[in-house]
Amino acid sequence: MCGIGGIISRGTGSGKELSFQVDRMLDVMPWRGPDARGVFEAPGVALGHLRLSILDLSDAANQPMSDEHGNVLVFNGEIYNYRELREELAEVHEFRTQSDTEVVLAAWHRWGTECTKQFNGEWAFALYDVRKKELILSRDRFGIKPLYYCLDGGRLCFASEVRALLASGVPPRVKADRLLQCIKFYQIEPLDSTLVDGVLPLEPGTNLVFPLREEALRIESYYTPADMLTSAVPEDPRQAAEEFGALLADSVALRLHADVPVQLMLSGGLDSSTLVALAANKERQRVKTLSYVCPGSSADESLFSSQVAAYWDTDHERIEFGNNDFFDIFDRVIEAQDCPTHSADHVARYLLYQQAATRSKVILEGQGGDEVFGGYRVQYNVFREHYEARLGVRLLMEMPPKPRKSSIPRVEEFGKDYWKRYRKVRRVTQELGSGHPYVDQQYMTLRNSLPSLLHTGDRLQMHHSLEGRYPFLDHRVVEFGMSMPVHHKMWTHDKYILRRNVDARNLLPREVIWRRDKKGFCTQLQKCLLSSPEAKKHMYEVFREGVQQYPDFFSLSGLEKLLEEQYVHGVNNLQRLLAVYSMLRYMEKNKVQLAD
User: Fold this and answer.
1) Which of 2, 150, 182, 294 is catalytic?
2) What's the angle, vertex CA 198, arms to CA 194 and CA 200, rounded to 5?
3) Where does the signal peptide begin and end (predicted)?
């Protein structure tokens, strides 16, 4: 796990001038690579790298890395099947390191852009092909690792974080419709745009090719929605459960491999508990586990996480939110996220990863299980509406009640002239159209909701120089899950095939396996905020200063209504209040200009 940045230019600018700008890009994200730093320069191109050492800790594995043909690579991520690929490529390449970075270079030389189809992993890389004089950017299938770019005529800049592009000279202009999208739908980063005008994310499952000698830029998809539906899944539930169990166990085993300490996040839910069981079942020593607990909260899962830790005798640690200054940490979260955020839970995650970083450089998390196998309210609703009666079954899962949210004041009431011009702004979504409601909903969740969760995880983890790995997002696991018949995924319980496999192998206590209650990430932070008059006063001061700076955009009276409803009438406006608060903090720090 690392940070990358670079510039390629068809116009003016020597390699030395470009490398100076790339150095500034690396300066603003040092947490991504505290172990080594390097910059490659050549006429018209400069590539920079910050290293967080995970595999082959020697200096020989530092980047930028070049091969015997002169090709140069800066790489962020992990290729989990690199040992198998290395064995195959050893026939045509003499390896000098034990790193997966060198495997990427060798794979590129053999297969070109088709090499990405060979990789099982998460990555964002930039490779300069010295013979063709072109730069190739690539991002993994599901967008686990971030990669942004900005195209300005004959010049392309790219980086792991948007802040690095701003440091290279990209102006911090923001369009009003994107601000509204963030505050109205809490959609910080759709797949095809960012908050900053002109800065784009490279979409998951794509390669970008920028030739120095031609005007054309090519963006090519190597992984399509149809690829997710290609797995051959047995009709027999028992056989399907066995095959899936073997696949997930292999995914966990691949992600446990590292030359540094590894630990697992254990919430007490089915997904993280299963990963702990599979890891502990494989390793010959006690695995490290870490839980965030909320004693006294109805959402607390510490009973279950403690059961799992005891069941496998893990080296278990628990942390809980203390009497911290919420807004002090929330400001650090906004800085780490490199964008506004709406969730108080991100403060708890920040503290969780901060603690995790004291014991390891790598963590395994259960992200992806809900998206791929149906663990959200919306998927329960689709199943109940379209499948329950036909299958003759009743889903027993229970969700906590939704908190009462305000219908007034509407977003437009605390915005002014700019907001009125964008009243019809819509949430950006991607749809599959498979003809099967459940599969379509899975895809919607995977493509529209998962990216923001991965964004949060990557930024908060890497801010503490911590690598996150997600066994449920192994592309083989995703394809198996997406291709399964609905009745394998959901029956009396969600993730039915996973529960059957874990139960048959006695991997977890049955109280954990067959839980009906579904809980979200547990914190006491909302309660702390609502009981604090200082919090209300602090938010008001930030709102007042923001309105003074952007008088055409925000209405102080509308924001006062939100605060009044929240603190006097008990209506849940907290997400929207934090979204506005973090937006103003982000705009202030980055000296944001409204693009239109």
Assistant:
1) 2
2) 45
3) none
User: Could you give the C-alpha distances from 57 to 39, 51, 62, 99, 284, in angstroms and in order?
Assistant: 19, 10, 9, 9, 23
> Alpha helix locations (H) across 505-573?
510-513, 525-530, 533-549, 556-568
Per-residue pLDDT of the chain (596 residues; tens, 9 = 90+): 699 999 999 876 677 889 999 999 999 999 999 999 999 999 999 999 999 999 999 999 999 999 999 999 999 999 999 999 999 999 888 999 999 999 999 999 999 999 999 999 999 999 999 999 999 999 999 999 999 999 988 899 999 999 999 999 999 999 888 888 888 888 877 888 899 999 999 999 999 999 988 778 999 999 998 899 999 999 999 999 999 999 999 999 999 999 999 999 999 999 999 999 999 999 878 999 999 888 877 778 999 999 999 999 999 999 987 666 788 889 999 999 999 998 888 988 999 999 999 999 999 999 999 998 888 999 999 999 999 999 999 999 988 776 655 544 455 566 666 666 666 666 667 778 777 899 999 999 888 889 889 999 999 999 999 999 999 999 999 999 999 999 999 999 999 999 999 999 999 999 999 999 988 776 667 667 777 788 889 999 999 999 999 887 888 888 998 898 888 887 888 888 999 999 999 999 999 988 86
Q: Is 259 annotated as a binding residue?
A: no
Domain positions in the chain: 2-223, 227-401+435-513
What secondary structure does DSSP assign to 155-198, as a single string?
EEEEESSHHHHHHTT---EE-HHHHHHHHHH-----TT--SBTT
Confirm whether 2 is a catalytic residue.
yes
Strands 121-129 and 65-66, sheet pairing:
unpaired
Separation CA 481–CA 148 (nearest Å): 29
Top CATH class of 227-401+435-513 equals alpha beta
Question: CA-CA-CA-CA torsion for 70, 72, 78, 79, nearest 10 degrees?
Answer: -40
